[in-house]
Amino acid sequence: MIINPILPGFNPDPSICRVGEDYYIATSTFEWYPGVQIHHSRDLVNWDLVTRPLNRASQLDMRGNPDSGGVWAPCLSYADGLFWLVYTDVKRFEGSFKDAHNFIVTAPSIEGPWSDPIYVNSSGFDPSLFHDDDGRKWFTNMQWNHRPEARNTIGHAKFDGILLQEWDPKTQKLIGPIRNIFEGSQQGLVEGPHLFKRNGWYYLTTAEGGTGYDHVVTMARSRSIDGPYEMHPNTHLITSKDNPEAVLQRAGHGQYVETPDGQVYHTHLCGRPMAPKRRCTLGRETGLQKCVWKEDGWLYLEQGGVVPSVEVPAPNGAIKREEPVEIVRTFDSPDLPSEFQWLRTPHPERLFSLTERAGRLRLFGRESIGSWFEQSLVARRQEHHRFRAETRLEFSPDTYQQVAGLTHYYNRYKFHALGISTDEKLGRSLIILSCPGDYPSGKLTFPIGMGQSIPEGAVDLAMEITDNDLQFFWRVAGEGAWQAIGPVLDAGVVSDEGGFGEHGSFTGAFAGMFCFDITGRCNPADFERFVYRRV
């Protein structure tokens, strides 16, 4: 059986592609670096991260990008012996404008090498590339409207229909007329277009309703690629908007795929909110539904209706493998463990080193936690509602402006951090820095005030998240029992819905290590290990 979500934790906007017996899913990474996660499977049940292709300055530089800017909604496809990856780099998020620049990179293999990007356009986000059976290629994206009214769509004025234009691979440019081919349904906020062709019909799936609890996958078709498009009999293929009791909420934004023997599936993003405030700490995750074609030439969920299921039949009866309860990472390799990422910059050597001190991840103190430029934070996704993270570090601050430790992090407005610092009266000490959703000012709270004195030497730090609750712990490295420090904190605020609300941010919670030194002297912290354990 396929067990949803197939990619737990922050993995939204899934674009799926099959090449022979191999399936690949590309998901958005927003401000996290390197850009775009690509997972691989042979059975649609078990998935492994294989690459993050946007990994150098010539491809992606997000320094200065706002929270929830960066890489939105990639589209992965395969044609002409190449993998094609289309993506947006969003430079402005708030206000009436979206500065959203669309690019294409290609590679002969999923592992690369991936090309430098080719610029396409900036008229809107959620780009997609369709390879027609006559050899022509077509580029689609939603059109962003900064005006008070929309002329090309229904519902929300900012989302002004789906644009289509031909892509010429020889000149590497868009050619021919720009056509607005789809206004969307009454649900509004049409985005996330993907085209495919079957039996002479062009099928268009889009996302609508915004990426909150009214999200949907909408489907339409036409005999001509530029329309007019007629709507699916149910309008929506997948949605949980009218079923608040469904496990998988916020379902929308996905893509169609066929197996080699003709079975059909459709990806979608989803969220699993925590009661009582319906907050998704795991962010938007990836789900997969089995579908069927009916005699009317339309696609439907195999189980009937439109609500996504947690358990879905696999194409070949594959069984989901057991996931480890605990993952222990020691930093004795020159490469960062694959589940970890950092923020925004294509120059990680300014943030951390795995070789400067053998067996340690050394973080160089840079700008403040929450900075949009150079923030030394290395973290992995939260994948479970209940987990524990532990780390051991050595850090010798000489001013309170230097702090290093362990954090539960979403963005500059939503995080809790336990760190080693120093104080004029307390000496070497632990301090908790929290920003519990204080948007837009980002002011800190201090759950243990000025801190708690600790001895010199290496220290173990831990945090345990139980649904909506977070408790920090500490001890002298390897000595004695863990000691709780500070009150139980609100872990639920470290979520999509925390602070600004369900449409305000689009990533997910991370557990990680941080170090800042706002004196500019780059005082380093050395981390010996990192443990992630589901509980």
From TrEMBL:
Kindly indicate whether the keyword Hydrolase belongs to this entry.
Answer: yes
According to the entry, every stretch annotated as the Beta-xylosidase C-terminal Concanavalin A-like domain falls at 330-533
Q: What domain of life?
A: Bacteria
Molecular function in Gene Ontology:
xylan 1,4-beta-xylosidase activity
Q: What are the record keywords, sorted?
A: Glycosidase, Hydrolase
Pfam families from the UniProt entry: GH43_C2, Glyco_hydro_43
Note the InterPro entries from the entry.
ConA-like_dom_sf (IPR013320), GH43_C2 (IPR041542), Glyco_hydro_43 (IPR006710), Glyco_hydro_beta-prop_sf (IPR023296), Glycosyl_Hydrlase_43 (IPR051795)
Enzyme class per UniProt: hydrolase
Q: What is its EC number?
A: 3.2.1.37
Q: Which family does it belong to?
A: Belongs to the glycosyl hydrolase 43 family.
- State the name under which the record lists this protein: Xylan 1,4-beta-xylosidase
> What is the native source organism of this protein?
Peteryoungia aggregata LMG 23059
